[in-house]
Design brief:
Elements (H helix, E strand, L loop, with lengths): L1 E2 L25 E4 L6 E4 L9 E7 L4 E4 L4 E10 L3 E6 L11 E5 L4 E6 L8 E9 L2 E12 L7 H10 L3 H4 L22 H9 L5 H8 L4 H19 L3 E12 L5 E9 L6 E5 L2 E2 L12 E6 L2 E6 L8 E7 L2 E8 L4 E3 L4 E4 L3 E8 L7 E4 L2 E2 L6 E5 L5 E6 L8 E7 L2 E10 L16 E3 L5 H35 L47 E3 L9 E2 L8 E3 L9 E2 L8 E3 L9 E2 L8 E3 L9 E2 L8 E3 L8 E3 L8 E3 L8 E3 L8 E3 L8 E3 L8 E3 L8 E6 L5 E3 L2 E10 L3 E2 L3 E2 L8 E3 L8 E3 L2 E10 L1 E4 L2 E6 L5 E6 L5 E6 L5 E3 L2 E4 L3 E2 L16 E3 L4 E4 L4 E7 L6 E4 L2 E2 L6 E6 L2 E6 L8 E7 L2 E10 L6 H8 L2 E4 L4 E6 L7 E6 L2 E2 L6 E5 ...
Parallel strand pairs: 5-11, 21-28, 22-29, 30-32, 31-33, 32-34, 33-35, 34-36, 35-37, 36-38, 37-39, 38-40, 39-41, 40-42, 41-43, 42-44, 43-55, 44-56, 45-55, 45-57, 46-51, 46-59, 47-52, 47-57, 49-51, 50-52, 52-57, 53-58, 54-56, 55-57, 61-68, 69-76, 95-102
Antiparallel strand pairs: 1-11, 2-3, 3-11, 4-6, 6-9, 7-10, 8-9, 10-11, 12-13, 13-17, 14-15, 14-18, 16-17, 18-19, 20-22, 22-26, 23-24, 23-27, 25-26, 27-28, 60-62, 62-66, 63-64, 63-67, 65-66, 67-68, 70-74, 71-72, 71-75, 73-74, 75-76, 77-78, 78-81, 79-80, 79-82, 82-83, 82-84, 82-85, 86-87, 87-90, ...
Length: about 1500
């Protein structure tokens, strides 16, 4: 049961922040907290300097907890002054210290509100108030308590609340599927409501399976109704969620948990989500790692319900609800293994087969091999039969490495077995054998037969459900079709014309005193006649359900009463009695071969003669005064009749199962006489009544007579239930006492005693062969003689004073009558009978055995064994002591086994004796088993116990008295002559007593052993106590560990850590007998932490650590240092210095701590931690805000901590000092390519900030030139520069202190144009003067100069011979004759080189003299050919801004003219591309690749004989 909290707006007693002092007058201003959900009220508009209102830095978290657990809330508050914290709840007070405790931890500043052993009535909304003089902060938190179990004390309380119309407290969250314990009794054939819930959450492919499971065959009707229910459910769900999808039913995961999933979006995130199992709400947590069994976690839109530690009782019907609406339902079923997998021995290269049969169809099992999940693939085949009961795992091509344990898991059930792979010894060495075609393994049983038997059981259950549903629907259809306005009479046609058949009995409840009732005469399954009785007053006569070979008819009525003669199962006649006064006469349900009729009535009373199961006659008694006489249910071969009534009384003679007579007594005063339920072969009759009393003679089960005694005083005399062969009678009473002669199983007489004072005498339940009768009554009392199952007579006793006399249920073979009784004592008398007979026993071989028979009287008897009489002697003794007969066997042997029988007259009793032995163990095996098994943690522990094979032998294993079951980490193997127990992966907690028990019908024997699991010890027990601390010694003490890990602790290891350090140092170890340690290597004033380990042969334990550091000696703090002085200030730093303290108290100072306080605040903030001291006496404070004012103080730190603080320094403002502007590392020259932007950056320092001005050649700059000023820097930007922008730019910075200037030369230029034509002239031998026309850019660029390169035919290389020439001439030296010379002249500036100007050739070729052929003719050879591409262009993908070379090789004669194209546009004249052609090698160079340089490049070579071309693509990367 889940108790929800109630959220109200009221305030309970003691709820406020200060209930005693709160006067309600303080009002204030609402403030917003940084923590959501906190409400802050500030009492004044402006807070004083350094003060603050309360606030929460950590608020309490809502909690859902189980009843009886420890609940607590934690909060952390801030505020100056320190606020007080008060807790309260909405509906109740928190003043009880036993239930509510408020605590405060000054170290962590946590306020805790604890509720030990929380109870359901503590579920509420709680409030936490934090208050000081400047305001208050308040936060609320909800506590939900999960109620455990049903509380008996709550039932009266809920009834009282209902009576007071307080329905809100009574209504509780319930699932639509009620728990099994509260399910109303279902009508036969009614469909389980789980059927519809499952269908609404299932996929359509699962409809057929669910219908087959619940026995539903009408799919059309099912789908129609399901669609209606789905529409209603979707409307309900739409109020709370949207996008409900991806419903996955519950399934078992590989990690042993079960889970189901669904996705939806909550419209209201605060909506509650509930989980149910079989209609009962179950608690859950948010994380699976918690201690609770169930978990509901959210991943995005997906909600995942998980359940761990699965047990058989976890099977059930699970539902997830949002508020009151169901979202998902799923059924979790557990299956069992009917046939488990068996051990398989396979040869190498052979297939191995594991087989099993489960109890319910399952589409897939989880198979594991050597603790790894297995899937269908090349190595494994997983097979499932059509009925999904037989599952197989085939391990193909087994190798030796496949050896191990294989397991099949179905939910929490599992079975496992070994696979043993034997190497093929006949295989040739070094060669792989061929794969075998045989299979090894299998279960060894007929799996198909087991599966068929199980399938038949499942089909039978399914068919039974179908038949019940079908019958219920047919019955509902018939009821709807039958429309009878007032009177209907139906006669059923007989269907079986042979002997009486067995049908289902239908009990009907008649209603008296009705004017218009319904009567049926139907469903007759008889070969005789079944008719409804005559009616003359609109009444209804039923003669229905007759299953008799005779006649079953309803009685005649003349006054509108009901006469029924139904359900007769008799071979004779069953008729209803006549009625003339509107009374009710029934003669129904006769199961007799004789006659069952209702008695006559003349006064409107009902007379019933029904249910006769007798071969004789069962009739209702006559009534003349409106009384009721019933003669029903007779199962007798004699007569069962109701007694006569003349005064409106009721006489019943019903249910007689007797071969004699069962009749109700006479009544004359409106009393009630019953003679019903007689099961006797004699007579059972009710006593006479004359005063309206009630006489019953019912339930006689006797072969004799059972009668109730006479009463004259209103007392009660019972003679009932006699099961005796003797006599049992009730005594007479005259004083209202009670005399019983009941329960006798006698062959004698059981009767009720006489009463004269209105008491009650019963003679009932007699099973006698004589007579059981009810006593007579004359005063309106009640006398019963009912239920007689006797061959004699059962009658009720007589009463004269309105008392009740019953004679019923006799089960005797003789007469049981009640004797006269005048007072309290009980008188018993009867014929001989056996009160305690023989039963089957098991006797131990060699031990004595005794059999005893008790009689109710002293009589003789004889003993027989296997039909042969027994006598004393030969190890047997037969004795008799009064009515006790004993047979003693002194030493049992195998020959003593047999059937023993005791006979006394016509009475006998028998029992079988079986002689055998108690199981026993061999002494050597028992001694060997008793030795303890010792293993380490994580190892397996194995136990084996041999024994002698026996039949009916049960073997059980126990650990610490708890029986172990096979599964999980426990493996139990039972063989005919021994049993093995294997405990896998043992833990320390598995240590304990292991016991094996052998049990058979003769007794049990046990053998015990011990399992010891060794582990490292547990940590020593704390806390660590400080025994002594001085300036040189610290002594600590601890306690031994609770768990020594199974072996004794050998020693303890102690480690130490100095405060402020991270290193732990081992100090040493001490023996196990000593649990204290003295540390002598300590420094006075320093603090140390210690941790202690316990060690045994298995290893070290976890450590026990001191809670707080321990100081060596007494704390001595230093005096205050000198007042800090401000050395310098800036906007980012304030430099301080101070003097050491005058008194260091004799302890060395290791550093200082500096604190700051901002102006207009009261809070000092430490700039460094105590464990990070400032070693010098000066410090630069960089954590400052520009323009803010601060004061500082310093504390000296020694080994004991920080001492007193110094006086505060003077206020210092974080700002720079005044200074004239100065520029920081500026550049005075800048070259920019024309067209690019010019950006001149100048950094400066000045205080206050200066005014910046830019000039161009001492003139104001143009408007299109941008100036960007930021703190400490100024930029001049020319967006698109031109050559005319070249100038000297001056920056001027001026403030109140002074001004500064700086000049920057900016030169805007471009690559120069090539010089003009080059001329060569030799002035002297060996020297050539080279002159050229100046470049057009020479006048524009004063930084332009020339470069001259020289080439000669000897070296065939170009080399620079002159650089940085500002003239237009150059003289070349060492010019030799016979060598050709070429010169190139370049113009160069800051942007690079121009194209060269070529000189004419100088040298041998120019002075060559042509040689004549002297008339000799020669053959002309032609070398002309069209152009061809020798090396084509390659694809290039350069990054943007990088340089690029693109080359190809061309040949042809005459030399072809080469042209370059970009996207079909010639680029030979484009200055962005440097194109050369040297000896057929055509090259193109791009200095910086641009985006528009990308595209298709094509080279075309043309001469007079033809054309050739090649192309490539250029892709520019970013």
């Amino acid at each position: 049961m889940f108790k929800r909290t109630k959220v109200t707006d009221g305030t309970a007693t003691g709820q406020g922040p200060d209930a005693e002092n709160w006067d309600g007058k303080e009002v204030g201003f609402r403030k917003k907290s940084k923590v959501p959900g906190v409400m802050i009220t500030q009492y004044i508009e402006k807070l004083p300097e350094g003060k603050s209102h309360p606030d929460f830095t950590r608020k309490p978290i809502a909690l859902t907890i189980q009843e009886g657990k420890f609940a607590f809330f934690k909060a952390i508050v801030t505020g100056d002054p320190k606020p007080t914290v008060v807790w309260s709840r909405n509906n109740g007070d928190v003043s009880d210290p036993a239930r509510y405790q408020s605590k405060y931890d000054p170290n962590s500043n946590e306020h805790t509100f604890e509720m030990p052993h929380v109870k359901p009535d503590q579920a509420d909304t709680y409030k936490c108030f934090a208050k000081n003089e400047y305001g208050q902060a308040m936060v609320t938190v909800v506590l939900n308590v999960i109620e455990v179990g049903f509380k008996m004390t709550k039932a009266p309380q809920q009834q009282a609340e209902v009576a007071n119309c307080n329905f809100k407290k009574v209504l509780k969250r319930r699932s639509k599927v009620v728990p099994k314990a509260e399910e109303p009794e279902k009508k036969e054939g009614e469909i389980d409501p789980k059927f519809w819930e499952l269908l609404m959450s299932a996929d359509k492919k699962d409809y057929e399976r669910i219908c087959a499971e619940f026995g539903v065959t009408d799919f059309r009707w099912m789908l129609k109704k399901l669609n209606e229910m789905k529409r209603e459910r979707e409307e309900e769900q739409a109020e709370f969620v949207k996008n409900l999808s991806d419903l996955k039913p519950i399934h078992i995961n590989a990690d042993g948990t079960a889970s189901f999933e669904l996705e939806f979006d909550l419209l209201d995130p605060s909506s509650s989500i509930y989980l149910y199992k079989d209609g009962e709400m179950i608690p859950y947590t948010k994380e699976l790692g918690d201690k609770m069994k169930h978990c509901l976690r959210k991943v995005g839109r997906k909600y995942i319900f998980s359940m761990r530690d699965l047990m058989p009782e976890d099977a059930g019907f699970y539902q997830l609800d949002v508020e009151d609406v169901n979202m998902f339902s799923t059924d979790f079923k557990m299956v069992d293994f009917l046939v488990k997998i068996q051990e398989v021995k396979a040869m190498e290269r052979e297939d191995a087969v594991f087989e099993c049969v489960i109890s319910a169809p399952l589409s897939k099992l989880m198979w594991f091999g050597k603790n790894m999940p297995l899937e269908q693939g090349d190595k494994y085949d997983i097979e499932v039969s059509e009925d999904k009961l037989i599952h197989r795992l085939v391990v193909k091509d087994c190798m030796v490495v496949d050896k191990g344990i294989y397991a099949a898991c179905a939910g929490i059930k599992s079975c496992n077995a070994w696979l043993v792979v034997e190497a093929d010894k006949g295989a040739p060495k070094g060669k792989k054998t061929a794969r075998k075609t045989t299979r090894a393994g299998g279960s060894g049983t007929d799996l198909q037969k087991v599966a068929q038997e199980q399938q038949q059981i499942l089909d039978k259950e399914r068919e039974e459900r179908k038949e019940k549903i079908k019958a219920a629907r047919e019955a509902a259809a018939e009821a709807a079709a039958a429309e009878e306005p007032e009177k209907t009479a139906d006669s059923g046609a007989g269907k079986d014309k042979g002997a009486a058949v067995k049908v289902e009995r239908i009990d009907k409840t008649s209603v008296a005193a009705t004017t218009t009732v319904a009567g049926d005469s139907g469903s007759g399954h008889s070969a005789g006649k079944a008719s409804g009785g005559a009616k003359q007053d609109g009444s209804h006569a039923d003669a229905g359900g007759g299953h008799s070979a005779g006649k079953a008819s309803g009685g005649a009525r003349k006054d509108g009463s009901i006469a029924d003669a139904g359900g007769g199962h008799s071979a004779g006649k069953a008729s209803g009695g006549a009625k003339q006064d509107g009374s009710h006469a029934d003669a129904g349900g006769g199961h007799s071969a004789g006659k069952a009729s209702g008695g006559a009535k003349q006064d409107g009373s009902p007379a019933d003669a029904g249910g006769g199961h007798s071969a004789g006659k069962a009739s209702g008694g006559a009534k003349q005064d409106g009384s009721h006489a019933d003669a029903g249910g007779g199962h007798s071969a004699g007569k069962a009749s109701g007694g006569a009534k003349q005064d409106g009384s009721h006489a019943d003679a019903g249910g007689g199962h007797s071969a004699g007579k069962a009749s109700g007594g006479a009544k004359q005063d409106g009393s009630h006489a019953d003679a019903g339920g007689g099961h006797s072969a004699g007579k059972a009759s009710g006593g006479a009544k004359q005063d309206g009393s009630h006489a019953d003679a019912g339930g006689g089960h006797s072969a004799g007579k059972a009668s109730g005694g006479a009463k004259q005083d209103g007392s009660h005399a019972d003679a009932g239930g006699g099961h005796s062969a003797g006599k049992a009678s009730g005594g007479a009473k005259q004083d209202g006492s009670h005399a019983d002669a009941g329960g006798g199983h006698s062959a004698g007489k059981a009767s009720g005693g006489a009463k004269q004072d209105g008491s009650h005498a019963d003679a009932g339940g007699g099973h006698s062969a004589e007579e059981a009768s009810g006593g007579s009554r004359q005063d309106g009392s009640l006398a019963d003689a009912g239920g007689g199952h006797s061959a004699g007579k059962a009658s009720g006793g007589a009463k004269q004073d309105g008392s009740l006399a019953d004679a019923g249920g006799g089960h005797s073979a003789e007469e049981a009558s009640g004797g006269a009784r005048q007072d309290e004592p009980l008188a018993d008398a009867g014929e001989p009978g056996i009160t305690s007979g023989l039963s089957d026993i098991h006797a131990i071989r060699g031990q004595p055995a005794e059999l005893t028979v008790k009689m109710n009287t002293d009589c003789d008897g004889a003993w027989f064994k296997d039909g042969e009489p027994l006598k004393s002697g030969g190890g047997i003794s037969i004795t008799k002591d009064a009515n006790i007969h004993k047979l003693t066997i002194h030493s049992c042997r195998d020959t003593d086994s047999g059937l023993l029988r005791f006979v006394s007259g016509d009475l006998s009793t028998e029992g079988r004796i079986t002689v055998g032995d108690v199981p026993e163990f061999d002494e050597d095996d028992l001694h060997k088993f008793s030795k303890p098994v010792i293993v380490r943690v994580g190892q397996n522990a194995a136990f084996k116990m041999p024994f002698q094979p026996q039949e009916s032998l049960t073997v059980s294993w126990f650990k610490d008295g708890t029986e172990l079951k096979d599964g999980g980490g426990v493996k139990i193997v039972r063989e005919p002559n021994h049993s093995r127990l294997l405990l896998r992966d043992c833990l320390r907690s598995d240590s304990g007593e292991i016991k094996i028990q052998l049990k058979n019908p003769f007794g049990a024997v046990e053998a015990t052993s011990q399992l010891i699991v060794l582990d490292r010890p547990g940590p020593p027990e704390g806390p660590v106590e400080t025994v002594e601390t001085t300036s040189s010694v610290i002594e600590i003490k601890w306690n031994p560990p609770k768990d020594d890990g199974g072996s004794a602790v050998t020693n303890y290891i102690i480690e130490r850590q100095e405060r402020g350090h991270s290193l732990w140092t081992k100090l040493g170890d001490v023996s196990a007998e000593k649990t204290s340690f003295r540390d002598r290597n300590v420094t006075h004033g320093k603090k140390y932490s210690y941790r202690i380990y316990a060690e045994n042969p298995q290893g070290l334990s976890d450590s026990l650590e001191t809670a707080d550091s321990i100081m060596a000696g007494i704390m001595i703090l230093s005096g205050p240092p000198g007042k800090p002085k401000v050395v310098s200030t800036s906007k980012t730093c304030i430099n301080l210095t101070w003097t050491p303290p005058e008194d260091d108290k004799g302890v060395p100072i290791i550093g200082y701590q500096v604190e700051k306080r901002k102006k207009d605040t009261n809070q000092w903030l430490a700039l460094n931690a105590i464990n990070e001291p400032i070693e010098d006496v000066n410090y630069a404070v960089k954590d400052v805000t520009e323009g803010a004012e601060y004061e500082f103080r310093v504390s000296a730190i020694n080994e004991s901590g920080a001492g007193d603080a110094s006086p505060p320094s003077a206020m210092a403002c974080a700002k720079n000092p005044n200074m004239r502007p100065c520029f920081k590392d500026p550049e005075d020259f800048l070259v920019v390519r024309a067209g690019n932007s010019v950006r001149v950056k100048i950094s400066y320092e000045a205080e206050p900030p200066p005014h910046i001005t830019w000039l161009k050649d001492d003139e104001p700059i143009a408007p299109w030139i941008n100036v960007i000023n930021t703190e400490g820097m100024s930029q001049l930007v020319i967006p698109s520069s031109k050559r005319s922008d070249s100038a000297i730019y001056t920056i001027k910075a001026k403030n109140s202190v002074g001004e500064a200037f700086f000049d920057v030369e900016v030169r805007v230029t471009d690559e120069p144009k090539c010089p003009g034509p080059v001329e060569l002239e030799q002035t002297v031998y060996g020297k050539v003067a080279v002159s050229w026309v100046p470049s057009p850019d020479q006048e524009l660029d004063d930084r332009l100069y020339y470069v001259v390169s020289q080439h000669d035919s000897n070296t065939r290389m170009w080399k620079t011979v002159a650089d940085r020439l500002f003239a237009n001439t150059y003289t070349a030296h060492n010019i030799l004759p016979g060598i050709e010379y070429h010169f190139r002249v370049y113009a160069k500036n800051d942007m690079g080189l121009s194209d060269p100007s070529q000189s004419p050739t100088w040298g041998a070729n120019s002075n060559r003299v042509p040689i004549s052929s002297n008339g000799v003719s020669s053959m002309e050879i032609s070398f002309e050919r069209p152009p061809s591409i020798l090396v084509p262009l390659k694809v290039h993908t350069p990054p943007k801004g990088y340089q690029l070379y693109m080359t190809c090789a061309v040949r042809g004669c005459p030399t072809p003219n080469v042209s370059w194209y970009l996207n079909n546009t010639c680029i030979n004249s484009d200055k962005n591309y440097y194109i050369t052609n040297s000896c057929g090698v055509c090259s193109m160079y791009i200095l910086r690749v641009r985006e528009n340089d990308g595209g298709e490049y094509r080279v075309v070579a043309v001469n007079s004989l033809g054309k050739a071309e090649c192309s490539t693509k250029l892709t520019v990367r970013d």
